[in-house]
Structures are given as structure tokens and as C-alpha cells.
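Operator note (shift B, R.M.): manual run for CHAT domain-containing protein requested after the automated queue skipped it. Running by hand, logging everything below so the morning shift can see what happened. Input copied straight from the record, untouched. If output looks odd, do not overwrite the archive copy; leave it for review.
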Amino acid sequence: MNKLYVLLFFYSVLGFSQNLEERIYVATETFIANKNETSLKTLSSQEATFKKQVKTKDEQLALVFLQCNKGYYLHELGDLNNAINTYEEASNRFSAYKLGTLSDFDIIESCLKPLGNLYIKTGDFTNATNTIKHYIFVATEKKQTNHQIGGTINLVKLYQSIGEHQIALKITEEALKLSEASLSQKENLQLAKINSLIALKAFDQALIENYSPFITSKFSKHKNSYYIALQKEDYQKALQHFNKAKAFLTTTSLTSREVAKFHVEEAQLHILLNEPNKASKSLKAALSILVPNYKKEGLPTKEVLYAENTFIDIFDLYASIQTNTSTALNSLDLSFFVSRLLRNNWTSQESKIKNQVADRHRSETCIGLLFNAYNNSKDKTFIFRAFQYAEKSKATVLTDNLLKKKRLQKHPNDSLLIKEFALLKEQEHLTSLLIKEQLGTSQASKISALSQKLRSLSFQLKTLKTQISEKYPENNGSISISDLQQKLKADKATLVYYFFGGNSIYQFIISHTDNALFKIPLNNTIKKDLTDFIHLFDNAAIINNDIKRYTLLAHQAYNLLNFNAVKTEKNVIVIPDGLLNFVPFEALLTKHVNTTVFSKMPYVVKQQTIVYNTNALFYFNERVKAKNNKLLGYFPVFENSTKELSYSINEAKTIQSEMPSKLFLKKAATKSSFIENVQNYGTIHLSTHASGGDFVTPASIDFYDDSLYLHELYSRDINSNLVVLSACETGIGTLYKGEGPMNMARGFQYAGAQNLLISLWQINDLSTSQIMQSFYKHYNNNQLAFRANRISKIDYLGNKSISNVKKSPYYWSAFVFYGSFGKPVDSGLSLLFFYMGISIVIILIAVLLMPKLKTND
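Run finished. Output pasted below as returned.
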């Protein structure tokens, strides 16, 4: 009897399983037959139920089928974020349960291909790269030529989106040679080729290619002619071709989003033709498509906007035709709002960094509007508003990471935040592995596997971010002017903050009592003057061979950067930007001199203490004292090689005599030892070689046996009070607008280092050793790195045993200190003072209330 019950139970479960699979397919087919917003809600409700019930692989596959169809419809609706989330879940489900072994379901066509396109559209270039390259690899393995070519087309679109047109052109030309490509694929490849040729200003070749028999669409032919005329700045001719293309608009298969973009292009052309009213009409037509309930009056509210980059184009253009400053700023604020919505879906810092250029341009526009408003009204509230626009577009990725760390410090036991950091570390670790594989001669299978893991991690991070956002309100890290001025008052310092734009350099000077805003025109002559000054430090001979040129350019840069405006201030915080990241402000000359004796020159360092920082938030951030002040040092030396650093041993001996330290010398200075020990020390010192990297190879720093690359630091916790990078080029690197140089200093800052002493160029081994000996002597006496940095330079200049040639600023001004004035705060003492303050307040309140209590009696 019991056996009978077991069999009945077994068959009932089996029947339920088959029914569940069938119910999922029926629900999907019902939706496909009648797609609308009501049926989408029904399907989503059913999907939520199915997720809780599915168990077998067949059921999982049915759910993948449902999600792919749901994602397709969401894409059609223009709900790109939800489409991405749905496709991502389908992709992860298909991979996690190895459903490719179950059936011949075409996951590339149904999921990965549209997902790759969506990543490109929303600016998530890292996930786009990983997705497209992964499915090209899968298609190659399975000999699916059609998908290989389709993937190649999407890869070309990706490279075009990030401005890599030479690479895009090369891939396109190779793909056009493939006989297996269909006619529609050849047309897409040909159109992509023309787009890249136009971007590279190869207009004649683009016109020839536009007559290709592969291009059958008259709409596309006229659009190409329009783009060529537009790039040639022949706007009347561009308008003629645009109107010809417009005649075919209704007969061309375009999505509503593509039609909206067409109207935006029309508006852009009318602006160039100085026809603002027509431009406004076109922008309103685009908004009406993207926001069906838009009334065509004024600006829409934030509530109706969503993550769609076409909105950004609309609001930026709308602002450009406004004569009212307030209206223009409101429009640009909507662009920033949509930009943040898009940003919320990017998990990799690479995607965030690549998308910052547009925000920078927009910030410059806002600062310019507010600068003019300030000049007209002398109302200083405009200055701090302008300052906030500058701050929000400077080192945003580093700032995001800092805010996340501060949130975790505030809620150290929150499992969501702990998991978030674990996933972020794993993401950076996998990214560093992927970069290493791509730099080497790795197999495509390894790269594909790492790409797939990164996509999966990205999905987990986005899911987690939604939960965290619901729990903790967003903190954008903005600082009030009063708080900033209080910090400056405590430090007895003045802030000199630069915004390096495309047309101007804006300089904010903020003290504890006042603030000012200056505009420095940025023409080719000024750019050349700044660049010439920076290049004086390319090698030791340049300055020594022409000392007069140095004195001329150093004083010229002092005036150009308006540094004389703070000449009476003893403590100055400098926030550099753009090219100014590579300027040694301490080596500027306060007046023109004819002397060739370096020690007698009026350097800024003789009059002022200069401390640098990444942005105002990093300066404002309270430094918490590390658990100990022991020093961890690495000195590979590289004996008997072309890399030998013989004077590095002198540095080690000095440090050992001045501070409690653990030093690893020569063969013991390995990368693995550094990774193992770095978290346990308050001060880190690396005396070695380093490289600023380039657009292909990331920045790195050398140990005896291996190099540590920039991306490897991103997954580390280095909460030291001070990191000293006594190595070449640790402060230079590939410069990204807004984020700054991608150098080793940034890597240590990202990892949590609170103060940094870094170098801006390749430095002399002996002079570095001498400066470091002086630095640690003074640092050990007062634990104030900013002061020790300045005194070590003055000591060097005053050392009579050093020749005049060696006192060139090339030898002593390479090291710059990033951090803050004052010692790090002891976290225990901070709490003590906090509770003491609370107690004092309570006592004062009691004393004030006592007379009232007696009166009432």
C-alpha cells in the first residue's frame, strides 16, 4: 500500500513538472499573440510565480524562452534598463543550468545579440565588450558563421561608440571579404565602414563607398551624404540631403527611438543654421515620441524620464538655444539626471570613466553660465553653484568608491554592504586577470570564460545595488560651502581648485572667509606654454642646458595659473585638473630672475606649503589613524642589471634608523610578499621602478620577481596613513577627462591609502635617496608628511655638498604630496570627544533649565 502511495506521488510530481513547463510556454505564446502593456503585466506576474516553482532543466529552458520574449518587447517599448535586466537573467539562467546541452535553443540570436546591442545603446561598454566577444567565441566554436558575422557587426558598432574608428574600419574591411555574409549583413558592414570613414574625415572615400551596390536603402544613402556635408560644415547642403532622407522616413523600418534620434539630428542641424525656433520644434517632436504624455510646453519633469541617452541630447541642445540662464541650467540638470540613471546600471569603472566626457563638457557649460551670471550680478552664491558643477564631474569613480567605503564603515555589520564589497573586489580581480590574459598570448577560451564571469558578477552587483538603494538614500558626497570653509579654517589653508575645460580653465579660490572665481582663456598659445613647461622635466639635461628658458616658463606659468592670487597664503591646497595634474606647482617661480644659481631662485616651495588632492571631497574626508605607524618597505635594487638602483639601499638604511620598520630587500622584495603584508602597516614605502602605462598597457610598479598592475590594486584594502612611491612616473599616466591620470597613485588611493607621496617624472636615484633621508627624518619627528615633504626639498636646496647642476628642480620637485594638512584622527579619540561634547551639551541644557524649574516651583 505504501509503495502505491509513493508511485502515485511520483507520477503526480512528474505530471506537475510537465504541466509547469507547458504552462510557461502557453503563458509566453499568449503574450506573443497579444503584446501590450496589460499583457506584459500579466506575464511579469506569471514569471514571478514560475521563478519560485521551476526545478528541472526543461522548466528552466521554458523560463529562458519567456524572458527572452519579454526582453524583446521591453526593448521595443524603449524600456532599455528593464530589457537589459530581463535578458541578463535569461543569459545567466541559460549558463548556470548548462541548458545549451539540453536543446538547440539559439541563445545568441534570442538573448546575447540583443543584449550586446542594448549595452552599447546605454553606454555600458565593458559589458558590451564581454558579451559580444563571448558569443563570437561561442559561434566560432560551433561554426555558426552567421552569428560570427553578426557579432562582428556589433563589435564594430561598439568600437565606433567609443571613438575607435581605425579598429572599427579594419574589422569591417576584413568582414566584407567573407563570402558567407548575407546581403543584409554586407549592407550593415558597408554602412559601418562609411560611418568610420566619415569620422576619420576620409570624405572622398566615404562618397565612393556610398555608391556601393550593397547599400539598397535610399534613406541610408541620403543620411550618409548628410553626414559628409555636416562634417565639411556645408550646412545648407547637409539640410538638402537631410530633407531627402526625411522623405523616406515613413517607409523605412525604424524604431520609435530611432525616429526620435532623427528629430534630434534635425534640431542639431537647425541650430547650426541659426534657426532656434525650428530646432525647438524638432526637439519637442522627439520628446513627444519618448514621452507620450508630454504637452510640448516647457521641460518635462524628472518623474517621466528614464535611462535613455536620447534625452541627454535633447536637453543639451535645448539648453544651447536658451537666452535665460535659469532655463538653460534647468535643462542641463535634466541631462545630468538622465546621465545618473544610466550610470546606475554600470558596474565597471571602465564604463563609467569612458562616459564621463559628455558630463565634463556639460559641467563646463554650466560653469560658464554661472561665471557670466556672477560677473553681471557680483552675487557670490553663483560661485559655489559653479564649484558644485566642477566637483560633480571630477574623479567621480574614485568618489563613488570612497562613499561606498564610508557607508560600510558606518554600517560595518550590514550583510548587503559586505557582500557588495566582496563582489566589487572579485570584479576588479577578474578584470585584472582579463587584462593580463589580453596582454599575453592567452587562449580565446580563457578570455571568453573570464568575460562570462564578469557579466554574471555585473548582474549580481546590479541586483544588490537595487536592494542597497532602497535601504540607504543616495549620498552624492556634496559638501556645503560652510563645512568646507570650516575645514580650511582649521587647517589655516586656502583652496585653489582648477577646472580644465575645452575652452577655458576656471580657477576657484576658497578661503575660510571668502571665495572667488577666475576664468583663464585656453587658446593654443596658452596650451603650448603649459605643455612646454611640463616638458622641461622630461629629462635632467633640458633645464640645465637652458636655465633662462626655465626661469622664463616657470614664472610665466605662475602668472598664467593665477597663483599670485594666493601668494600671501602659507598653506595651499591645490586641486589640479587635466594637464595641470603634471605641473609641479612648488617649482613655479614667484618672480622673474636672471640668476642661474638654482638655490637662490624664488620657488613657491620656499614661501608656501603645497598639498595636492584629487577633489574637494577627498580633501574634506577625515583621515582616520591606522592601527600602527610601522613602516613596510620594498627595495628590489635589481643588482647587476640595467635596472639597478644602487642608492636605494641608502634609503632603506635611513628608514630603518628613523622608524620602526620591516624592510624587504633585493630578492626578498617580491610581489607576493607585498600582497601578503600590505594591510598590516601604517606606512608603505616602495623604492623601485614604475611605469605610467599607456592606452594599451596599464600603469605598473616593479617588484623583484614581477610587476604589480594598476587594476590589481583595485581589489586590495590598503588603509595606510601614508604610501610613499619612491619610483618613476607614479604620478603620471594616461589622462582621462574628469577622472584624471590612470596611474599607480590612483590605484593606491582607490584601495584606501589616505595620504600619498608620488613622483611626476623619472627621477634620479641619488637625489631621490637624499630627499627621502631628509623626509623620513622630519616625518618621524612630527608625523606630518606634508611638512616633511616641504622641508626635505628646502634641505636639499640648502645642502652645500650638492652641486648647482644637481639642484635643478628636475631633481627635487618631482615628489608631490596628496592628502591633507594635519595628523590623521584617532578613531577612538574621535568617539571620546564626541561623547564628551554630548555630555557638555546635556550639562549646559540642565544649567539653563534650572532657573525655570525653580520658578515653576
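Quick read of the result: The first strand starts at residue 493 and ends at 500. The chain is about 60% helix and 10% strand.
Leaving this for review. - R.M.
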